[in-house]
Amino acid sequence: NNNNTARFDAARRVAIFGGTHGNEMSGVTLVNLWMQNSAEIQRKGLEIKPFITNPKAVEKCVRYVDTDLNRAFTQENLSATGGDELPYEVQRAQEINRMFGPKGSAEAYDVIFDLHNTTSNMGCTLILESSKDAFNLQMMNYIKKAFAPASCLVLLNEHPLLKYSTSRSVAKHPVGMEVGPQPQGVLRSNIFEAMRVILKHALDFISLFNEGMEFPPCTVEVFRVLERMDYPRDANGNIIAMVHPNLQDCDWEPLNPGDPMFQTFDGKTIHYQGSSTVYPTFINEAAYYEKQQAFVTTRRETLAASAISKTTK
Amino acid sequence: MERTSVPPIHNVAICGGTHGNELTGVYIVREMQKQKMEKAGSVSVTTVETNPRAVAAGRRYTEMDLNRCFTDVLLSSPITESTLYEVRRAQELNAQLGPKGSAEAVDLLIDLHNTTSNMGLCLIFYSIDWITLHIYKYIENNLSSVPVRAIQLDIPSSKAYSLESVGKHGFAIEVGPQPNGVLRADIFNVVKEALDLTLQWLQKFSSGHSFEGGTVEAYTFVKSVDYPRDSAGKATAVIHQNLQDNDFKLLRSGDPIFQTFSGDILKYEGEDLYPFFVNECAYYEKKIAFHLAQRKTYSFPPISVKND
């Protein structure tokens, strides 16, 4: 089936981003560690750069200073003029685009791993931005198998309205790594170790690929983002209900029409009114209250990835 | 112990948002205000959102931790243009709900907090006070969904730094685990239940009910333990998984407490004590990885209200 093998250049330049949100501590801690001592992440023939993307936010232990860095990599922002007058994170986005991009060009980094935590009970989640990136799909297949029996799920956000311009989108192959639950500003050892392990598997994959291994066709189960569900709010925009106890912590479990979804402050249940079963995730993520999101709904899909191997020169 | 008669509780203040990102108290207070919860039987109820600026910013505090501003020294410090917001706010709250130590102070002040630590529901108080112990016992006997514990901070009133010290009687209700900036329905429901039980007790007490005495096991603060740090002051380890989420589980010499980033395990050495506030987010800047407590049993007498 060699005709159907997708060929990619060896991935020589890889970056690991931590602190894109300054209070998501696993990535901040890992990247700081590796900047001091990179032995653990070194692989032959690979340049791996650990990097703190939002140092001011890390220093203040906040998600962002002026604006969310992980939404800032729009074409408009990347080409904006104004230098120091621009919001801090827009300046950072431009700097990161210079160092690791330019986004969309041949000079861009091959792979960027962006390390995140969530207050949601999502476990280990890999975030994919395109269903057509065979290299990324094969990587995720590899990571899931290597991590088993522990669970590592894949979230696909390709929704034209809901997808956003992430720090990692500067690279040819962007990979989000989201591990939770962990409170903002807190470092939990189990979460820290899990992220360390999935990243190790990811780097192993790249190493094997670069050495010439061919990865046969595979399928990958993903959860595709469908819609954002906000909290019920009053006329002034204040929330009037909380994620229902039956839904809280039930990321990736089926939510059926009629199931409890929210609970008002005076104890009433609001039920899910959708027409079919969905799989909610990012349930009760702290950072999303201001983004009008109580959770997102997803549907399960199986994506096919062609065989891949390195281009031969 | 002998039956004791205790002066009546005419009024109670329920406070939330003292730390602006501890959301349960914020929303409980708002809901009580919406429902116009102003009386529980003959007891009048005041609700206060104590640090609205911090709540609006979604931060623990804006300039200084409000819940460290209630010492006698800070409450009497002169206000100038450069006075920090929370110091100013503490004095406003002291005027509204106190003054601390005076006959005008609210009879009972309850301050609602959350922690990222796995502490269940805790009542935190300064002095061994019969009203507080009876309320604690009443909640403990009637709330089964989470563990209920009592924590005592042995600090004299003048040095007592937190909001509840303003009331003639006072305690904090601290519930976790809940991340900062997150509102969990299960935690909200537990705190609401604890407050309903408290108001129930106050009404029974006010109407002349006699409560049996008993004993309470309370945890008394002994000391704090910081993270191991390098020469630059950066933490070099994380709370060990054996200790993480095991607040109030007895810690003995030889038990693992930290794991360094290079994988070494650091062990506890010292007397058997009970850890709490294990991995509380807000304490990283206060250089606290966890607190340690002794557990003591206190007896309390039967009480009923003294008629005026």
From TrEMBL, chain A:
Gene Ontology CC terms, in alphabetical order: cytosol; nucleus
Names of the cofactor(s): Zn(2+)
Entry keywords, A to Z: Cytoplasm, Hydrolase, Metal-binding, Nucleus, Zinc
Family: Belongs to the AspA/AstE family. Aspartoacylase subfamily.
Stored Pfam families: AstE_AspA_cat (PF24827), AstE_AspA_hybrid (PF04952)
Subcellular location: Cytoplasm; Nucleus
Residues at the catalytic site: E178
Positions bound to substrate: N70, R71, Y164, S165, T166, S167, R168
Enzyme Commission number, as recorded: 3.5.1.15
Lineage: Eukaryota, Metazoa, Chordata, Craniata, Vertebrata
Domain Succinylglutamate desuccinylase/Aspartoacylase catalytic: start-end pairs: 11-206
Binding residue positions for Zn(2+): H21, E24, H116
Chain ranges of the AstE/AspA barrel-sandwich hybrid domain: 219-299
Organism in which the protein naturally occurs: Poecilia formosa (Amazon molly)
CDD domains attached to this UniProt entry: M14_ASPA (cd06909)
Main enzyme class: hydrolase
MF terms in GO: aspartoacylase activity; hydrolase activity, acting on ester bonds; metal ion binding
Cofactor-binding details, from the entry: Binds 1 zinc ion per subunit.
Keyword Zinc: yes
InterPro entries the UniProt entry points to: AspA/AstE_fam, Aspartoacylase, AstE_AspA_cat, Aste_AspA_hybrid_dom
Listed name of the protein: Aspartoacylase
Binding locations of N-acetyl-L-aspartate: R63, E178, Y288
Primary subcellular site in the record, as a coarse category: cytoplasm
UniProtKB/TrEMBL annotation, chain B:
E.C. designation(s): 3.5.1.114
Membrane topology: Peripheral membrane protein
Hydrolase keyword on record: yes
Keyword Metal-binding appears in the UniProt entry: yes
GO terms under cellular component: apical plasma membrane; cytosol
Catalytic reaction annotation: an N-acetyl-L-cysteine-S-conjugate + H2O = an S-substituted L-cysteine + acetate; an N-acyl-aromatic L-alpha-amino acid + H2O = an aromatic L-alpha-amino acid + a carboxylate
Residues covered by the AstE/AspA barrel-sandwich hybrid domain: 215-294
An annotated Gene Ontology molecular function: aminoacylase activity
Keywords from the UniProt entry: Cell membrane, Cytoplasm, Hydrolase, Membrane, Metal-binding, Zinc
Cofactor or coenzyme needed: Zn(2+)
Family: Belongs to the AspA/AstE family. Aspartoacylase subfamily.
Protein name listed in UniProt: N-acyl-aromatic-L-amino acid amidohydrolase
Natural source organism: Poecilia formosa (Amazon molly)
Lineage, highest ranks first: Eukaryota, Metazoa, Chordata, Craniata, Vertebrata
